[in-house]
């Protein structure tokens, strides 16, 4: 299974929605801040040392706060929310919080924008795998899941074009399978290099994990792994 650091790093470098919460901004505590577009970075990327670079409009409150802080440490939290790209009950798959200190980085942004640097102090992820904290060193060294850029499209394709094959995966559940499982709707919920997670929806919802024989490194290997999985389910 992916480590907490890998899962956190993958969320940060995904297209999931994100907002920056800044303590003391306009006199508000982080939990009181409005999730406005002004606090949503236009882009984000992780640097070589594990810092997170965030692109904001130059007139954003986040930029003003970082500019006014100057040599003082400006505490902030990058909050990321991961929502399943397919329609399914309990659609939020997880959240991650990256807390640290914001500073302006001159000269890196396009005109009309400012780049902010978030030095990571600690991180925390609460997702389908569980809730765990992540140390800055672990975050900096973690790998990103190779399927992150394709996951949303792949899940939507599986759901729309291969629904029957996904449904047949219930046959691999062994002792968990009973007559009610076959009548439940199977929805592909999450996909990573280690396997596929399916949510079975009915009177009671539950998730089942279908691991690949070996972790995949790209979409080509994923296609072979999915073919093997579907073949096993058909028998």
Question: What does this entry look like structurally?
Answer:
The longest helix has 16 residues, at 219-234. A hairpin with a 2-residue loop joins strand 8 (185-192) and strand 9. It contains six helices and ten strands, in the order αβββαββββαααβββα. With 235 residues, the chain is α+β, with helices and mostly antiparallel strands.
Estimated radius of gyration: 20 Å
Order of helices and strands: HEEEHEEEEHHHEEEH
Structural class computed from helices and strand pairing: alpha+beta
The separation of the N and C termini measures: 26 Å
Low-confidence stretches: none
Helix content: 10-25%
Largest sheet: 7 strands, antiparallel
Kindly state the number of beta strands: 10
- Determine the mean pLDDT: 90
List the SSEs and their pairings.
Blueprint: H1 4-12, E1 17-22, E2 43-46, E3 52-57, H2 61-69, E4 74-83, E5 92-105, E6 113-127, E7 130-134, H3 136-141, H4 151-161, H5 163-168, E8 185-192, E9 195-201, E10 206-211, H6 219-234
Antiparallel strand pairs: 1-4, 2-3, 3-6, 4-5, 5-6, 6-7, 8-9, 9-10
């Amino acid at each position: 299974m992916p480590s907490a650091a890998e899962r956190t790093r993958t969320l940060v470098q995904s297209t999931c929605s994100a907002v920056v919460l800044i303590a003391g901004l306009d006199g508000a505590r982080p939990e009181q801040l409005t999730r406005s577009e002004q606090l949503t970075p236009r882009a984000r990327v992780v640097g070589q040392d594990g810092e997170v670079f965030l692109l904001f409009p130059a007139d954003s409150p986040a930029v003003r706060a970082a500019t006014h802080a100057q040599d003082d440490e400006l505490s902030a939290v990058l909050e990321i929310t991961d929502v399943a790209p397919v329609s399914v009950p309990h659609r939020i798959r997880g959240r991650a919080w990256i807390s640290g200190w914001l500073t302006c980085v001159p000269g890196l942004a396009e005109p009309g924008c400012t780049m902010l640097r978030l030095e990571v102090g600690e991180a925390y992820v609460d997702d389908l795998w569980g809730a765990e904290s992540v140390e800055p060193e672990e975050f900096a060294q973690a790998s990103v899941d190779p399927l992150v850029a394709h996951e949303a499209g792949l899940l939507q394709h599986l759901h729309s074009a291969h629904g029957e094959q996904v449904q047949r995966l219930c046959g691999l559940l062994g002792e968990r399978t009973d007559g009610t499982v076959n009548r439940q709707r199977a929805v592909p919920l999450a996909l990573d290099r280690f396997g596929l997670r399916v949510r079975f929806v009915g009177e009671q919802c539950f998730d089942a994990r279908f691991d690949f024989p070996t972790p995949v490194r790209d979409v080509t290997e994923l296609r072979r792994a999915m073919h093997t999985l579907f073949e096993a389910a058909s028998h």
